[in-house]
C-alpha cells in the first residue's frame, strides 16, 4: 500500500440531513446521502494522519474502525472542522502521550485559546495535543505534506497534498476562489478531494461549476466531491458527472 484515503465525513457544516430531518433535495433512501461533517484520514503502512476533528468525530471513528492516529492537521478553526477535538482524549488514552497536532500559525493560536485544556492540560488532566505550526512542507513519518493557503471568506484554510512512494492525494476544502498557488500544488494528483458545496454560487465555498473548472485545470486521476449540502443528491450527481469525478460518501475508502 502506498497511500490510503478514508472519507470520514463529506457534509457541509449542518450535515445531511439537517436537524429537523431536513434532507432537501437528497433522497433519504440513499444511504450515501447521509453526510457527517468533513474529515478525512490519509495513511501509509506506518503513518496515519487525521485531517480535522469534526463534531462527528466519535461516530466517524466508530463507523470506520479507527482507534489510533499518529498526527492531526487542522485546515482551519471553523466549528465544523475543530469542535470534535475533545474526542482525541480517547486516542490519548491509548497512546499515553500527546498527539502531534498541526495548523497554520493563526489557526493554531486560535485553537490554543479556545481549547486551552487540550494543549496545556490542567491540575487533574494532562494535555492531549502537542501543537506545532504547519509549514509549507512538513514530514509526517513517511508521508510528505505540502500546504497552500486557500481564500475562505475573511480567513484562509490549509489546502493539503500528501505524497508517499510516488503517489499523491490532495485535499482542498473550504475555499471561495482558486489561486495560482492552489493550481500548482494540486496539479496531477492521483486523487483530488475537493469542495463542492452546491450548484448555486456561494460567497466562501466552491460551487459545482467552479469545482469542475478547477478539476479541469489540475487534471487529477480521480476527483471526489466533498463538503456537500442537502441540495447535492448522490445519484443525481453520479448521473451528470464524468466517470472520473464522483461525489464522496462517508466511509469511502481508496488505496493507491
UniProtKB/TrEMBL annotation:
This is MBL fold metallo-hydrolase. Residues 36-205 form the Metallo-beta-lactamase domain. CDD domains: metallo-hydrolase-like_MBL-fold. SUPFAM superfamilies: Metallo-hydrolase/oxidoreductase. InterPro entries: Metallo-B-lactamas, RibonucZ/Hydroxyglut_hydro. It comes from Parasphingorhabdus litoris.
Amino acid at each position: 500500500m502506498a497511500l490510503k484515503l478514508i472519507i470520514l465525513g463529506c457534509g457541509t457544516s449542518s450535515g445531511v440531513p439537517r436537524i429537523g430531518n431536513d434532507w432537501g433535495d437528497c433522497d433519504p433512501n440513499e444511504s450515501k446521502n447521509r453526510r457527517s461533517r468533513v474529515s478525512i484520514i490519509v495513511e501509509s503502512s506506518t503513518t496515519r494522519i487525521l485531517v480535522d476533528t469534526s463534531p462527528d468525530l466519535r461516530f466517524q471513528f466508530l463507523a470506520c474502525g479507527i482507534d489510533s492516529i499518529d498526527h492531526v492537521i487542522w485546515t482551519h478553526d471553523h466549528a465544523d472542522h475543530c469542535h470534535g477535538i475533545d474526542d482525541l482524549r480517547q486516542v490519548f488514552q491509548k497512546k499515553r502521550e500527546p498527539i502531534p497536532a498541526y495548523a497554520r500559525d493563526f489557526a493554531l493560536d486560535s485553537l490554543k485559546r479556545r481549547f486551552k485544556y487540550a494543549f496545556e492540560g490542567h491540575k487533574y488532566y494532562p494535555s492531549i495535543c502537542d501543537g506545532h505550526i504547519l509549514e509549507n512542507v512538513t514530514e509526517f513519518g513517511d508521508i510528505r505534506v505540502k500546504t497552500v493557503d486557500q481564500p475562505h471568506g475573511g480567513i484562509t484554510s490549509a489546502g493539503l497534498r500528501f505524497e508517499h512512494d510516488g503517489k499523491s492525494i490532495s485535499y482542498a476544502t473550504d475555499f471561495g476562489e482558486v489561486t495560482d498557488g492552489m493550481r500548482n500544488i494540486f496539479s496531477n494528483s492521483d486523487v483530488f478531494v475537493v469542495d463542492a458545496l452546491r450548484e448555486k454560487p456561494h460567497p466562501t465555498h466552491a460551487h459545482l461549476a467552479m469545482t469542475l473548472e478547477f478539476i479541469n485545470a489540475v487534471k487529477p486521476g480521480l476527483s471526489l466531491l466533498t463538503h456537500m449540502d442537502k441540495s447535492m443528491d448522490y445519484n443525481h450527481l453520479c448521473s451528470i458527472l464524468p466517470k472520473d469525478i464522483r461525489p464522496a460518501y462517508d466511509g469511502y475508502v481508496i488505496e493507491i
